[in-house]
Amino acid sequence: MRRSVLLTPIAVAAIAAVPTLAFGDRAAKVVGNPKAGKPIFVSTCAVCHTLEAANALGTIGPNLDKTRLTQALLIKAITNGGASVMSKAAVAKYATHMTAYKGVLSPDQIKNISAYVYLSTQK
Question: Which of 2, 17, 88, 109 is the most exposed place for a label (fewest CB within 10 A)?
């Protein structure tokens, strides 16, 4: 027997305020602060990547509007370099490769950028 649960408007608002990543029937919170990630993306990533949400028109790297990467893969790509999450065929398409930002950006900055890109590409 299924029971219905009625949520108050406050409960609904609280649930809706937590961004989530879908994993089948489970959900995990997005790590990082997407609002803090946007200016870092604009100053660090927009020169190479297209991302409509940031008005970024870079053409050196992949168009992020055409990707659906998980936040975990975005964190890995930013931390270890773009080739770390690409197939050999995809890597071969690019004359240059995204540098690893581990040690350049803080772990929190990397999480913030990944949260921003992830939420911006989930349409």
Answer: 2
Identify whether 86 is part of a domain: yes
- Assign 40 to helix, strand or coil: helix
In a domain, 21, yes or no: no
Q: How many CB atoms lie within 10 A of CB 118?
A: 25
Is residue 23 within a helix (H) or strand (E), and if so which, with residue range? strand 20-23
> DSSP state, 30?
P
pTM reported for the whole predicted model: 0.76
Using pLDDT thresholds of 50, 70 and 90, give the confidence band for residue 29.
confident
Q: How many domains does the chain have?
A: 1
Range of 94's domain? 31-120
